[in-house]
Design brief:
The protein is an alpha/beta fold. It has 11 helices and 17 strands.
């Protein structure tokens, strides 16, 4: 039996829950959970905001632990090895996307917490392809958030061939944004942080930003017109997107990794004139995850975390929901 924490209905508190996972599939890995990050997506799923949650619901998709058992055909991992697991737990391995190394675009990929039980538990299972070794140089207690939030902001750097000479803006200094600043600084980019909180300027500099723009100040936004090759939006809020598009250089890109509540209105003519783009992306492939972890280990990049015990999981959820977490919440056994 696997011991977990589950909600029985939308928005309910998590309670102890046990389930029998059955026999271990031949290519699956069972992870003994040591730590699990708490992501805003867990809250969205808990509340069934996306209409896809099944109850009882066990959150948790930023897992770090050790391999407890492996299926008969697992060839890539060994029992006792420290590993991590993110949003995806399985993909078909045969479609054009999986076969081209873009498993995160597989149309039948399974989310770790979608239709299955996640990592708020003593154990969790996934296909070997999505269970990724954790470099020894990384602190396992704060590495979990890299497997979702970190990968979400790292993937666009790889997908769009961002260069060290590029000028990049990051909207929002939060759970995603603080990791984006660190990655982009280490990548060599000239990094600007956009925030509605003017008092975050010093902190943004410590996190990796060379410049700071108070996004509540229209004049400050006008002053950076025609400045950026990429703007990465990490916020879950509706903003004046035309103003941000105006800050892009020709061929610049406004890229979304935060889920904004409403459709994005934008004037097409400035985009045509400057050959600009609006885009979005979901996490990253297993190969990109490996690259991100190796880069983080080499550069000493770790998320800034607050730690709660699994027994205090509901307090941890409240902390995240309050918006006061700095910057990611992690549960530990």
């Amino acid at each position: 039996m696997i011991k977990a924490y589950a909600a029985q209905a939308p928005g309910e508190a998590l309670q102890p829950f046990e389930y029998d996972p059955g026999a271990l599939a031949e290519q699956d890995v069972e992870i003994q959970v040591e730590y699990c990050g708490l992501c805003h997506s867990d809250l969205s799923m808990l509340n069934n905001d996306w209409g896809i949650t099944q109850y009882p619901f066990v959150p948790g998709h930023e897992v770090v632990g050790t391999v407890a058992a492996i299926g008969d055909r697992v060839t890539t991992l060994k029992v006792g090895q420290r590993v991590g697991l993110g949003w995806f737990a399985r993909s078909c391995m045969t479609c054009e996307w999986c076969m081209s190394g873009q498993h995160n675009l597989c149309l039948t990929a399974e989310g770790t917490i979608v239709g299955r039980h996640g990592g708020f538990a003593d154990k969790v299972r996934a296909h070997q392809s999505w269970v990724i070794p954790v470099p020894e140089a990384l602190n396992p207690e704060s590495t979990g958030p890299l497997f979702c939030g970190g990968l979400t902001v790292f993937n666009p750097i790889v997908q769009f061939d961002i260069k060290p000479t590029d000028r990049v803006g990051v909207i929002g200094i939060g759970g995603l944004g603080h990791m984006a600043l660190g990655f982009l600084k280490a990548w060599g980019c000239d990094v600007t942080a956009f925030s509605t909180s003017a008092d975050k300027e010093a902190e943004a500099g410590q996190l990796g930003a060379s410049h700071f723009v108070n996004s509540r100040d229209p004049e400050a936004l006008k002053a950076v017109a025609n400045s950026f090759d990429l703007i990465l939006s990490t916020v879950n809020a509706d903003l004046d997107w035309d103003t941000y598009i105006a800050t892009l250089r020709p061929k610049g890109r406004l890229h979304f990794v935060g889920v904004v509540p409403n459709p994005i209105p934008a004037q097409v003519f400035p985009m045509i004139l400057g050959q600009k783009s609006i885009s979005g992306s979901p996490l990253g492939s297993p190969a990109t995850t490996n690259t991100m972890l190796e880069f983080a280990a080499r550069q000493g990049i770790q998320p800034i975390t607050e730690t709660f015990s699994f027994a205090d999981v509901n307090s941890a959820l409240d902390r995240l929901h309050s918006g006061k977490a700095r910057y990611r919440v992690v549960l530990k056994h």
